[in-house]
Amino acid sequence: MIKITFTIGIGKDKTGKPIPECDMELAKLRACKLIAREFGGYTAYVANGGWVDPSGKLIEEPSLVISTITDKPGNRELAKDCAEGFKLSFNQDCIMVTRDVVSMELV
Q1: 45: which residues sit within 8 A by CB, 6+ positions away?
Q2: What is the share, in percent, of the chain residues with pLDDT greater than 90?
Q3: What is the pTM of this model?
């Protein structure tokens, strides 16, 4: 099984402007529905994160983290396609996508 996690900055868009709450909520809803439809389910939460910009300044912002576990063939390409859509929806330069091999059981 593969765990795919999308981490999306939701504080400001790629121009540095705050993302309006109504736009962000709609984009979150669409993102979660897309992951559920394509992969069968998801876990989503808002987290706080940070990164260092090219000038060396620490940028801290809220992030939307969406994870899914899948054995679907072609999941790498599908995850990239989803991330490209999220870049547009959230007006971001990039979306972090991680893939981890996991074992899973439902108890």
Answers
A1: 64, 65
A2: 84
A3: 0.92
Burial of residue 35, with CB atoms counted within 10 A of its CB: 0-12 exposed, 13-18 middle, 19 or more buried:
buried
Q: Does 107 reside within a domain?
A: no
Type of residue found at 94: C
Helix (H, G, I), strand (E, B) or coil at 102: coil
Q: What is the count of structural domains for the chain?
A: 1
Query: Which residues does 25 contact at the CB level (< 8 Å), separation at least 6?
Result: none
Q: What is the tens place of the pLDDT at every residue in 50-81?
A: 989 899 999 899 999 999 999 988 999 999 99
Q: What is the DSSP letter of 54?
A: T
Count Cα atoms within 13 angstroms, Cβ side, for 11: 11
Q: Which domain CATH number covers 86?
A: 3.30.70.120
Torsion of CA 96, 20, 23, 10, to 10 degrees: 10
Determine the pLDDT at residue 81: 95
State how far the Cα of 9 lies from the Cα of 22, in Å rounded to an integer: 16
